[in-house]
From TrEMBL:
Similarity comment text for this entry: In the C-terminal section; belongs to the class-I pyridoxal-phosphate-dependent aminotransferase family.
SMART domains: HTH_GNTR (SM00345)
UniProt key word DNA-binding: yes
Organism the protein comes from: Sphaerotilus natans subsp. natans DSM 6575
Source taxonomy: Bacteria, Pseudomonadati, Pseudomonadota, Betaproteobacteria, Burkholderiales
Keywords: Aminotransferase, DNA-binding, Pyridoxal phosphate, Transcription, Transcription regulation, Transferase
PANTHER family assigned to the protein according to its UniProt record, in alphabetical order: HTH-TYPE TRANSCRIPTIONAL REGULATORY PROTEIN GABR, TRANSCRIPTIONAL REGULATORY PROTEIN
Name used for this protein in its record: DeoR family transcriptional regulator
Example of a GO MF term: transaminase activity
InterPro entries attached to this UniProt entry: Aminotransferase_I/II_large, HTH_trans_reg/aminotransferase, PyrdxlP-dep_Trfase, PyrdxlP-dep_Trfase_major, PyrdxlP-dep_Trfase_small, Tscrpt_reg_HTH_GntR, WH-like_DNA-bd_sf, WH_DNA-bd_sf
Length: 495
């Protein structure tokens, strides 16, 4: 992604200050002369930044007075609420969702389908040509002996680059505890296999990422689901109650921009979570694949940052933030690193070397943070656009999450809504969505039945998105049981 001009950097800095409350509604921004002097930029740059903020609806110009922070328009749409914990909802549950996942996700592979149900961001958001050039350069100077030396742990240069980035973000990770994997899913799956045996209980969020449920089902494990707040994630007090009632072998949680809710656990909750698990001797498998996709000024710390006992296995990848399809992930496994490296050797032996070399070269060149800034801006813009479209077209009583990162929007339909029925009818129009039933093994909570996840990480400028959301709104208003024209093709429905 090309470097952004100075005025966009200034506009984004001020946008973040407004979001954080450092600049309050009605407060006057620095004059153009003041901003020019303090920022060491031209007056034209300041004017362009203020024009951009005005176009975003964040500030307003007042004749002969200057620029002021605009009062935020109150949203008519409430946020979803976490389901209360009950003895029934936190019982250990056998997991069986594989058929439903394959049925729902099969349509997202079709390019003609509007990808609102996809689990992946658009590849158009990533510097794939530059990565290819980096890979070609790295392969030209490859030392063949390194192919054997780097097999199970992964490329040494890449592991040092990762550890360096983690240190700059406030996370102490030794390169030797990092194991490079075939994407984040292998990192997560290896961690799960290392820590559990068939029949064990694993604590997960509710709703949770369906691939976590698939992994539990595949390995013969049982799930205990923790009610998860769409804003702040799980409550450590609820987890403490679960740990007192069940012998939990491990937790699989996503504290940063949880999939599907988009929730961000506050740092004090993360600290309490890690301390609680350490007291009980329960390891944490932390899925942090969306941590780099924050909309604020600073990457939120993962739970790993508070781990002093080596019991947090921090799993993430480059797939969501840099290189989709390259399948390069890793796990910082703490005291479990040696055992996890052995398990990696016994299963897949190694991760593809060319992908590792390309990413290591790209990181060494220093353009990653510039790419991330542009990617975050684009995703934040697309989230705001989708939020506005859902608010405009979906029926009264719809609830909407307000994520601070990632690229998923969690929608809760009004009483009587049926997301599975909505999915079936939307599919007939060439529109995909991910119904809430995908994200839980415990189906007693009716709100999951009427909830859905939408993906706002689509290709920039995709003209199909707005008509597709309008069509979904009409279907939702009809209760998800009527289709305006089921025979209509995806192209005509969403043109």
């Amino acid at each position: 992604m090309p470097a952004m001009p100075l005025y966009t950097d200034l506009a984004d800095e001020l946008s973040d200050a407004i979001r954080r409350g450092a600049l309050r509604p009605g407060e006057r921004l620095p004059s153009v002369r003041q901003a020019r002097a303090s920022r060491q930029v031209s007056a034209a740059t300041v004017f362009q930044a203020y024009d951009l903020l005005e176009s975003r609806g964040l500030i307003e110009s007042r004749p002969r007075s200057g620029f002021f922070v605009r009062a935020a328009r109150a949203s008519a749409v409430a946020e979803p609420l976490a389901a209360p914990a009950t003895p029934e909802s936190t019982e250990a549950t056998e997991v069986s969702i594989g058929d439903l996942v394959m049925q729902v996700l099969g349509s997202t592979r079709d390019r003609e389908v509007v990808p609102l149900g996809s689990a992946f961001p658009s590849p158009h958001l990533f510097p794939l040509r530059e990565l290819a050039r980096c890979g070609a350069r790295a392969l030209r100077v490859l030392d063949p002996e390194r192919l054997l030396e780097d097999l199970s742990a992964g490329n040494e240069r890449l592991r040092h680059q990762i550890a360096r980035r983690q240190a700059l973000a406030g996370i102490a990770v030794d390169p030797d505890e990092i194991v490079i994997t075939h994407g984040a899913m292998e990192a997560l799956d290896l961690s799960l296999r290392l820590l559990t045996r068939p029949g064990d209980i694993v604590a997960v969020e509710s709703p949770t990422f369906y691939a976590a449920l698939q992994a539990l089902e595949r390995h013969g494990l049982r799930a205990v689901e923790l009610p998860t707040d769409p804003r702040e994630g799980i409550d450590p007090d609820t987890l403490a109650q679960v740990l007192s009632r069940h012998r939990v072998a491990a937790c699989w949680l996503m504290p940063n921009f949880q999939n599907p809710l988009g929730s961000l656990m506050p740092e004090e909750r993360k600290r309490a979570l890690v301390a609680l698990l350490a007291r009980h001797g329960v390891p944490l498998i932390e899925d942090d694949v969306y941590g780099e996709l924050h909309h604020g000024s600073r990457r939120p710390l993962p739970a790993k940052a508070f781990d002093t006992a080596g019991e947090v296995l921090h799993c993430t990848s480059f797939s969501k933030c840099l290189a989709p399809g390259y399948r390069v992930g890793w796990v910082a496994a703490g005291r479990h690193a040696a055992a996890l490296r052995r398990l990696k050797t016994l299963t897949s032996l190694a991760t593809a070397v060319p992908s590792q070399l390309a990413i290591a070269e790209y990181l060494a060149q220093g353009g990653f943070d510039r790419h991330l800034r542009g990617l975050r801006r684009q995703l934040a813009t697309q989230q705001a656009q989708m939020h506005a479209l859902v608010e405009a077209h979906f029926p009264a009583g719809t609830r909407l999450a307000r994520p601070q990162g990632g690229y998923f929007l969690w929608v809760e339909l009004p009483e009587g809504g049926d997301a599975l029925a909505l999915h079936a009818q939307a599919t007939a129009l060439g529109i995909s969505l991910a119904p809430g039933a995908l994200f839980s093994a415990f189906h007693a909570d009716r709100r999951l039945r009427r909830s859905l996840r939408l993906n706002f990480g689509h290709a920039p400028g995709d003209a199909r998105i707005a008509p597709a959301l309008a069509a979904l709104g009409r279907l939702a208003a009809a209760g998800g049981t009527a289709c305006p024209n089921p025979a209509e093709s995806a192209q005509s429905a969403c043109r």
